[in-house]
Write a structure and sequence with these properties.
There is one protein chain. Helices cover 69% and strands 0% of the residues. By secondary structure, it is mainly alpha-helical. It folds into 2 domains: 150 residues, no CATH class; 90 residues. Helix 2 crosses helix 6. The protein starts with 16 loop residues before the first helix and ends with a helix.
Length: 260
């Protein structure tokens, strides 16, 4: 199989808004004329959905897209169409899957970023996005998924990101989110230990202190795992690694504050 190198699409950055608009219009017009029930369209949509989702999750987490409807047409222009896809309905299906997947991925990624940095995030939004993606994939893929080469399929206009590296970045982000949520629990356990000690409830203080220290060790292990995926996740994983390290430091501090 052959794939684009990803170099040519970098010219998109220098295009005028008018040319970009014309390109988006041309794709939209082609998609409207596509046979959306043809096997080729389904095959293309099947192949585009999950890569689009990964790109959206990473964009949403890292803040390069903050709304599920942001950059709706630019995503189609900034990601090269794999040359292995056949011209016509298959490529138009790829664009549809890419766009739908990206939109759902951004919604998920924004909330995943909140989970990695704050006490609050919307699990409902994340569940809805993941369910919608699953439904789209099931509709277009059925029992047969036509895979692309994850290691060589380029997912940006610079040729530096692949499906495989986006998948690693997403995994790093999930680890960072888990690390932060456990760190928050560690802080709660540390507070429990201090309050119990202030009341003279030594058994409760000992229990909370021991659980806080164990929880902090778990956070550190999550941060270490996140760091181990950074190279494969490339630049897209860097923010998540820092988030995981921040969570580990927060958990260590909370555990140390329990004394003992």
């Amino acid at each position: 199989m052959t794939h684009r190198t990803g170099q040519a699409p970098s010219a998109i950055r220098r295009l005028s808004p008018v040319i970009i608009a014309l390109g988006a219009f041309a794709w939209s017009a082609g998609a409207a004329l596509a046979d959306r029930d043809s096997p080729a369209f389904h095959r293309g949509a099947c192949q585009g959905a999950y890569p689009g989702w990964l790109r959206g999750v990473v964009d949403g987490y890292n803040g390069s897209a903050t709304s599920p409807v942001e950059n709706k047409t630019l995503i189609l222009l900034s990601i090269p169409t794999p040359e292995v896809l056949r011209p016509g309905d298959e490529r138009l299906g790829w664009g549809d899957g890419l766009e739908v997947g990206h939109k759902l991925g951004v919604a998920y990624g924004v909330e995943l970023g909140k989970a990695a940095r704050t006490p609050k995030s919307s699990t409902e939004t994340m569940d809805q996005s993941a369910t919608a993606l699953g439904n789209y994939i099931q509709f277009h893929c059925g029992a047969l998924i036509a895979p692309l080469d994850w290691d060589t399929t380029v997912m940006d206009d610079r040729g530096t990101t692949t499906i495989a590296s986006l998948n690693e970045a997403q995994l790093t982000m999930s680890l960072a989110a888990s690390a932060n949520q456990i760190a928050i629990s560690t802080e709660d356990l540390a507070r429990c230990a201090r309050e119990a000690e202030a009341k003279g409830d030594w058994p409760a203080a000992f229990k909370c202190r021991a659980e806080a220290k164990a929880s902090a060790r778990i956070v550190v292990s999550f941060a270490d795992m996140a760091r181990s995926h950074e190279a494969a996740g490339r630049a897209e994983a860097a923010v998540a690694v820092r988030d995981a390290q921040d969570a580990a430091e927060k958990a260590r501090k909370a555990a140390d504050d329990t004394g003992g």
